[in-house]
From TrEMBL:
Protein name, UniProt field: tRNA-2-methylthio-N(6)-dimethylallyladenosine synthase
Spans traversing the lipid bilayer: none
Designated gene of the protein: miaB
Signal sequence, renumbered to the chain: none
Enzyme class: transferase
EC number(s) recorded for this UniProt protein: 2.8.4.3
Organism: Sphingomonas liriopis
Record's catalysed reaction(s): N(6)-dimethylallyladenosine(37) in tRNA + (sulfur carrier)-SH + AH2 + 2 S-adenosyl-L-methionine = 2-methylsulfanyl-N(6)-dimethylallyladenosine(37) in tRNA + (sulfur carrier)-H + 5'-deoxyadenosine + L-methionine + A + S-adenosyl-L-homocysteine + 2 H(+)
Taxon lineage: Bacteria, Pseudomonadati, Pseudomonadota, Alphaproteobacteria, Sphingomonadales
Amino acid sequence: MTPADKPKTFHVKSFGCQMNVYDGERMAELMAADGMTATADPDTADLVVLNTCHIRDRATEKVYSDIGRLRKNARVNERAAPMIAVAGCVAQAEGEEIVRRAKVDVVVGPQAYHNLPALVASAAAGTPSLDTDMPLLSKFGALPARRRVGPSAFLTVQEGCDKFCTYCVVPYTRGAEVSRPFAAIVDEAKALVDAGAREITLLGQNVNAWVDGTRGLHDLIRVLDRIPGLARIRYTTSHPNDMAQGLIDAHGDVESLMPFLHLPVQAGSDRVLKAMNRSHDTASYLRLLDRVRAVRPDIALSGDFIVGFPGETEAEFAETLRLVEAVGYAQAYSFKYSPRPGTPAADMAGAIPDAVMDERLQRLQAALGRDQQAFNQASVGRSCDVLIERRGKLPGQMLGKSPWLQSVHLMTDAAIGDMVSVDLLSAGPVSLAGAERVRVAA
C-alpha cells in the first residue's frame, strides 16, 4: 500500500452517551495524528466512522440505514463511496454480522479503537478489518496526547459495568468494571487544561465506582481541584450503590465540584426495581438524596427512567410518578423499555403494548418537564458564574452553562472559554436568559 491509498479526510459521527462523545474525540485525534484531516461533511469524507450506541431501540437498524445513506449520496454525487468504519457498542455486539451484511471496511469495538489507524490501513490495502477484543484499558496508553479542546471537556476514568441490570447491554459491550490509573487521569486532566479546558466532566458507566488502591472518586476530585486553571469538575453517570460518603462530603466542601448530580433510579416501584436487578429501593434512594442535599442544599438532581418494563402495572407506573414528584428533578432522561438481545429482560414475560408505553412516557415527560421548568424558574433572580461555550444564533449572543448545568443565553462580547458573572433574568423550559455583571478572573 502506498500513502496515496490511505484516506485523506475523515468524519466521525457519534451516537448516544457522553462516553461515546469522548471516544469519538479520541478517534479523531488518532486519525489526525495519522495524517488525516477532519471534515464536517460526511458526504465529502474519504473515511466515515460511525461511533455507535446500543442502548436504545433500533440502534442496529439505524447503523445500517446510515451506511445505506452514505453510499446512496456518493452515487448521487458521482463520487467514490467512502470507506466506512463502524465503531462502538453496536460494533462490539454485532461483530462479523456487520461485515457480512453491510460489507463495511472496518468494525472496531469500544475497547479496541486505539487500533483504528492500523485497521484503516489494512482496509485501504484491500482487507476488511475486525477488532472486537476487550483488553483491560490498554487503549488509553496508545492514544495520542490531547490536542486543543473546548472550554468543557470529557475525561473517561472508568469503563464497563459489573451491575448486570436485567435490561442493560453495557456489561456485554463494554466489559467488566475497570478503573484507569490515578496518575494517568491526573496527567490527562492537566493536558486538557493546558489545551484550553476550564471544566472537566469525569466519565464512566459507573463513574463513582472508580477506585485506585485505597483512593476513591472523591480523592481523585480533591486532587484535580488543585490543578491551576481548572475551574469546574463534574462527573457522570453515577450508580446509587457506589455513592460513598466521601463523595457526598466532597459536594459540600470542594468548590470546583459543581452542584449537579446525575443519579439514575430507573423506576419508582420496588418490585420493578428488583426485577431490573437494581441494588436500591425507593426508600434507600430517597435517603441517599437527603444525605446529598444535607451537604449541598442547592444541588440540581438528574435521573434516568424506563417506562414499560416487562410486567409493569399501571399502579407501579403511578409509583414512578410519585417518586418524581417527591424528588423534583432539575432535568432527567426517560425512555420506553426496549429489549436488548442477550439481556435477561428480553426473555421476560409481560411485555407492555407500545401504545401503553407511549401514553405512560408522555405522562412521565410532562411531570419531568414541569419540574425542570420549576427548577429553572426558581433560578431567576440568582447571580452565578456562566462558562461561555459557544456562540448563539443572534449577533452578540453567547451560550454557556450555569453551575447547575442549565443552558444560559446572554448578550456579551465575552469570548468562548471566559467565565462571566451573570444575573439570571428569565427562564424557559430548557434554558435561561441572563445579563452580564462582571468577568471572572481566570
